[in-house]
Specification:
By secondary structure, the chain is an alpha+beta fold. It has 2 helices and 5 strands. The chain has one domain. The chain is elongated, with a radius of gyration of 14 Å. Bound molecules: zinc ion.
């Protein structure tokens, strides 16, 4: 899987979600529970993305590149790991 910024070509792939949680907990069962909460499946291994969610007040949210801050196209295979409360407001 390749997920790069179309503007500056930086790598936006933050790795497999299950592996992220496995490294965090060192517990495969717990990691699987958390990964599945994100929609991760063994047959559909989604990755975290380094992209940043921007939530304007009256418009749909979009994602920007963490490096060049340009707007990114929609990605179905990668999801940002930015927690809800850390969303940027414009
Ligand atoms: Zn970029």
């Amino acid at each position: 899987m390749h997920n790069t910024c179309p503007h500056c070509n930086t790598n936006l792939d933050a790795g497999d979600i299950y592996e992220n949680f496995f490294n965090m907990f060192n517990d495969s069962i717990k990691a699987l529970q958390f990964a599945k909460a994100y929609g991760w499946k063994e047959t559909d291994k989604i990755h975290f993305s380094r992209s940043i969610i921007v939530q304007p007040d009256r418009e749909p949210q979009y994602m920007i590149c963490p490096d060049c801050k340009q707007k990114l196209p929609e990605s179905k295979t990668c999801i940002p790991d930015t927690p809800q409360e850390n969303k940027q407001h414009l």
